[in-house]
Amino acid sequence: MTRALLLDAELNLSLGDRPPVEPADGDVVLDVAWAGICGSDLHVMATGAWVEDWPATLGHEVAGTVAVSRAPNVPVGTRVVVDSRIPCGACDGCARSARLCTAMAWVGERFPGGYADRLTIAATSVHVVPDGLDLAVAVLAEPLAVVTSALDRVHGDPRTVLLLGHGPIGALARTEIARRWPAVPVTVVEPAPTRAALAVRDGARTHADLTGVDEVFDLVVDAAGYPGSLTDALSRTASGGTVLLVALSGEPAEVVPADIVERSVTIVGSVGFDTAHLPRALAALAADPDRYAAVVTHRIPLADVPEFLARQRHRSAGKVLLRCGGAS
């Protein structure tokens, strides 16, 4: 049996056993070392959205070691991270980019994911981890690929940046912004003291809310997605500037089109990543692992996750990693 976190249809989360998924030709079975908690995982736990089979085992940010291989090009012992995307490969969006798939599914929602000691997945959905890169850092490749893809959509080099939200994606965005544009000042709006302290430590100016932020910015990144965050972002965007939306918010936003037109503001949405972004993320992590590892505030055993989440400790945390069966 596979030891895994199980989310039932009543949205109860517990540690239990599930039958292993037998590998088919072209599959590999991973000893999962580390898995990350993503905001979309928390959304699924709260709503049950996107799950196709119950009980669900979530987890799409995954790093581990190949324990069983039915794919000759990925031998046993290979250290890998998982490509979380499951594009349909047949729609008009896929014809342009897998990121634009209109029927995109994700590991952990279509089939059991990485909150487990083992994961069975197609060998075409894994990327080899560079030698010397700790799997506890390599597991950040998937969310870093999301950030990399989003920032690639910003045209030109900003002179100033405002970041709304310094949770896991916000912290990675701030870290990647500092790598790309080291001379550009970054202002962070984050009410949670622990998250704000991470930004201060790395040189960002922080505010608990927008009250004390009077200036406007070339680039405003909405990594918070709270009610009204798009309106707030537009209010602090300079003429000719860009609003980059990376948070998944289902709340309606009040926007005056003339404010956008008259100031020539660009609004960019970005979801997921393209295949080339994962190797780029792995290369960035390997080149400067300490820079990115600093966003991690908690590393917890799989068995402790239900209590950790029940106590709402994730709400003020930075990046949270789960230590699964294959972690040393």
Task: Give an overview of the whole structure.
The protein folds into two domains: 2-142 and 273-323, Medium-chain alcohol dehydrogenases, catalytic domain (Quinone Oxidoreductase, Chain A, domain 1, Alpha-Beta Complex), CATH 3.90.180; 154-269, NAD(P)-binding Rossmann-like Domain (Rossmann fold, 3-Layer(aba) Sandwich), CATH 3.40.50.720. Strand 10 (161-164), helix 5 (168-180) and strand 11 (186-189) form a beta-alpha-beta unit. The relative contact order is 0.17. The mean pLDDT is 95. It is 27% helix and 27% strand. Strands 3, 4, 5, 8, 9, 16 and 17 form a seven-stranded mixed beta sheet that branches. A six-stranded parallel beta sheet has the order 12-11-10-13-14-15, with helices on both faces. Helix 4 crosses helix 5 (168-180) and helix 4 (141-152) packs across helix 9. It has eleven helices and 17 strands. The two termini are 21 Å apart. With 328 residues, the chain is α/β, with parallel strands linked by helices. Residues 25-131 form the Alcohol dehydrogenase-like N-terminal domain. It comes from Kineococcus rhizosphaerae. Keywords: Metal-binding, Oxidoreductase, Zinc. Its cofactor is Zn(2+). Residues 137-307 form the Glucose dehydrogenase C-terminal domain.
Low-confidence stretches: none
CATH structural architecture of the largest domain = Alpha-Beta Complex
Give average pLDDT, whole number: 95
Order of helices and strands: EEEHEEEHEEEHHEHEHEEHEHEHHEHE
Count of runs of 4 or more consecutive helical residues = 11
CATH topology of the largest domain: Quinone Oxidoreductase, Chain A, domain 1
Full CATH superfamily name of the largest domain? Medium-chain alcohol dehydrogenases, catalytic domain
The value of Rg in angstroms is 20 Å
Class per helix and strand makeup: alpha/beta
State the helical fraction.
Answer: 25-40%
In the CATH hierarchy, what is the class of the largest domain?
A: Alpha Beta
Number of strands: 17
Give the N-to-C terminal Cα separation: 21 Å
Largest sheet: 7 strands, mixed
- State which percent range the strand residues make up: 25-35%
Supply the number of structural domains: 2
Shape summary: globular
